């Protein structure tokens, strides 16, 4: 597995979701069985964020682009997007996978996620974790 939810099992579904107030709506193509990351970095731990990666070309923002607010910190690489009305982050642009969208599992409408396995991501020591993660993915992909 490459860390994103490209067709893992040969079957893709359209997951739809959005924020609490409904101003932000999106859809993405991914497997119904996903691997999500629970990150312990300073911002994710406060938000209790659990997310899965979707290649950018498989993600479509349907409405609410004008309602998105961006928060950045540290290296200013990741773009933590959230609804300016209700404050919910339904997806963001991750530092770890710059060609993907990180989609919050709890913001997916019910019915399309069949199985979610959760891996821990050590965002507190991001550089070391990401180096090990990338090495493992290269082994799997080869």
UniProtKB/TrEMBL annotation:
What PROSITE patterns does the record point to? CENP_V_GFA
InterPro entries documented for this protein: CENP-V-like, CENP-V/GFA, Mss4-like_sf
Q: Does the keyword Magnesium belong to this entry?
A: no
Domain CENP-V/GFA, first and last residues per copy: 15-127
| Keyword Glycoprotein included in the entry's annotation | no
Q: Which UniProt keywords apply?
A: Metal-binding, Zinc
Q: Which GO terms describe its molecular function?
A: carbon-sulfur lyase activity; metal ion binding
Q: Which family does it belong to?
A: Belongs to the Gfa family.
What's this protein's name? Integron gene cassette protein
Q: Which organism is it from?
A: Coccomyxa subellipsoidea (strain C-169)
Taxonomic lineage: Eukaryota, Viridiplantae, Chlorophyta, core chlorophytes, Trebouxiophyceae
